[in-house]
Protein 1
Amino acid sequence: MSVGKRKIRELEEERRKSRPSFILFVWLIVMWQLLWGEVTWANVAGGIGVALLVSIFVPMPRVPVSDISVNWPAMIGLFATFFVDFIVASFTVAWLALRRSDPPPSAVVEVPMRTRDDLTLASAIALINLQPGGLVIDIDNRRKTVTMHLLDGSSTGRIDKTIAQLGRLERQVVRAFENRELDDAPAPGDFGHDHAGVRADAADRKED
């Protein structure tokens, strides 16, 4: 290959890398709709505007998609399940706020993540943070674990139920983005010393 052709290919590669990622552009629009909680023409237009501003004025590296193989039927199932869980979690948090009893004690747990790609991990964390009742407060990318604050840690049963729901969400995200199946989620007691400490503390509370 001549020097001239090599330089042309290098310039084309640089231009390709400098172009905004279409996947990131669409994902920003979707996240904008989820943050507002409803899909309207105004929200769609606002999401497109935000995605354009981010793409132009806050350029980011292209999303690494070496292990990404989108499974569109699984993607549809993921969002359908997410919206159902979102509605249920919203009513649960609303009930905790409106009932006459004292608010339940919270809990901090460490949960392993079995994703292979950074985009898959980021997508799973974004969906988890959008669900009422829980928030990711720390990410250990090396160990592929996340530390979560749970609003309702009143019992081991309640904690285990929340972790099982997160495991189901993770399996669906991996199925949608990496097109592979995960084994059943590990037992909650296998999540390491931090989580074991939380479970021991919660065991003194009321069992479900």
Protein 2
Amino acid sequence: MAESSNAASMDQDTARQLFEEGATLLFLNVPLGTEFGIDYNTWNTAEHFKGVKMIPPGVHFVYYSAVNVRDRCTAPRMGFFHCFRRREVMVLSWSKRDEDAVEHFLEDGEEAEYRGRLREFDPCLGSYPYESLKKWVSLTSHITENSVKDLMPSCQRIYSAPQLIADDETRTTAERAKLAENQRLEHPEGSGVSAEDLLPRMHSKPGTEIRFSPIPDKNYPVGASPAEITKYSMDLSYTLENMLRTRYPDRPTAILGEIQFAFICFLVGQVYDGFEQWKRLVHILCASEESLVAHQDLYASFITALHFQLKEVPADFFIDIVSTDNFLTTTLREFFTNLQGAEVGQPLKVKGRRFKESLTKRFRWDFDALPDEDAPVVVQL
């Protein structure tokens, strides 16, 4: 990991101040060539790498992958969010057995001791790339320390590959053989038996799931009339208000922290479940017509958050991933239609219109054209 270019060009007084006031992540015994990253920056570690210095206080995402130096094969990514304090020293070390980082929880005296040794570690520490900080802040502006505590898995690791275990890990080889024999007797001709029948069923290892907000099963209230069921199947305001009341009762804009958390999990952490949750939450906000009027501050911030997120994906990103169900263009078309007809303040309408124009310019999306299913049908007489 080389010194970042901005650290090299930074004047000595500024660099000294950042070194003293910023946080430090010590990452010890990391194998040569390991993929390591913080926020939007990724490197392969050099021989004497021991961590990163001058980390700005706030929420950051640290991640890494073991690399087989011989064939350059990279293991699935692992990482975690952490809210770094001013002058904090965090110490990790690499476990060869687990191929994972182990955190050393420091008492106050131990942290002070490590801080006193930072000059010793300094030649082996990379500088946080400050040129990317503005971009990172724009993508995480609503992620707070509470967001991290609420959403991080209880195991305190985010895995790009699902951590699966068998439903019954205690089943012995003899028990599996007996199961196979029973199935053979029940189906002597082999009908209905397949190799899959003999495999254990898998599920996520407890404690490894990201604790995203559950989406309510029903999008209408108990005892709703047929008219209300129809209404709230189209206008998802009841679903959104239910989620805000359950998960974010004191500050509705905190749901944007979850949207940003899910987006970072997908974009940087390579977690597909993050993309799925991001899609669900974006769709619910875009399709909630009544809530648009009730939470105008939330929607103004939502437009800003979505604007910065879509700036970070390639122009053909949604063509490759979303075009199968045309998710984003359909969802945003509904949002812009709701916004145009809603009784909201002029500043929100203007902000929505500018957002729409910027998307049309970049992605060539036409939000004013009728979707295929709504287009008039031409009948030949």
Protein 3
Amino acid sequence: MKMKKKEIVAMILAGGQGSRLREITDKVAKPAVPFGGKFRIIDFTLSNCSNSEIDTVGILTQYQPLELNSHIGIGSSWDLDRNFGGVKILPPYFDKEGGRFYKGTANAIYENMNYIDAYNPDYVLILSGDHIYKMDYQKMLNVHKEKNADLTISVIEVPWDEASRFGLLSADEEDQIFEFQEKPDEPKSNLASMGIYIFSWPVLRAHLIEDFNSETSTSDFGKDIIPKMVEGDDRVFAYRFSGYWRDVGTVESLWESNMDLLGMDNALNLHDKTWRNYSVNPISPPQYISPFGRVEGSLVNEGCVIEGHVVKSVISTDVHIGRNSVVQNTIVMPNTNIEDDVQIDYAIILSDITVKSGTVVKGTRDKIAVYPSEGGEDRE
């Protein structure tokens, strides 16, 4: 079914299992993991789309999608509840050949070509649903147009000792990319792909069809589509990004990114009224800090009752912390009850649980404890 033309359509890859986040993603997709006390990780990508005036967004789900789907709803929190365009959940589906899961990132887009074709776009923006950042995609699109590019990849410089975790690019003085390495053991560059791509749709469409018919492809952008475009005749350029960006794919990176919010001059700056971060927030009463409670250098959200001592922590919505309990260097996720006389340090406490009186949860700066842990090693 053809619809009125859109210049650009965004496709958010939000089906990741997030196994490196351990128990945090046992029952929820990584993009739906709580962040910053009142957000979900995917809120930042959706807010970027809204702030960039991109109003047609497909969200490709797969692993544990129930909570993510419920959170997104019809997209009204991000002004994406539109009659024409708006947000659309795109799970794997059954057709005349039967049901099948997405085989890879490129295959996920291939399986939804009909959705994209319906808007007949000039460009397709491919995004990840599990990164924390603020970015104006229109600025990237303008560069894509100026370079007459077939593909533009947003890149950021990373420390050399972390470079092997990323897809790495080498570019000339005009920022045209001439080499791409996917998570190499021996990096030649520290210019890392952020997993943010703008393709000219006719070019990408042709590559997706060719890739689908290949018997050797893994149907992945980083392993198949992008290297082929770089090595071929396509015009592939880098878009250099210098703002805040974090891939929160591990327990430690999730913890660090939350802790970044506690600095007075934090680069993400949730108080920036020119670039708001939107979310679905429950209706909860104001936070209450009792005469016995004490809070230092922390974020404490609505619905919280603090009777203990909170230091350098992110306390999510509707959390209770009992008397004589000390919570420091910790993320407490929503709807959690921490009883009296609990000691917690360098940890992530999961949602919807009770931490019993007398419990001790101790991690370290290099190994953040997750509670409750399947193995129980976080409890002393």
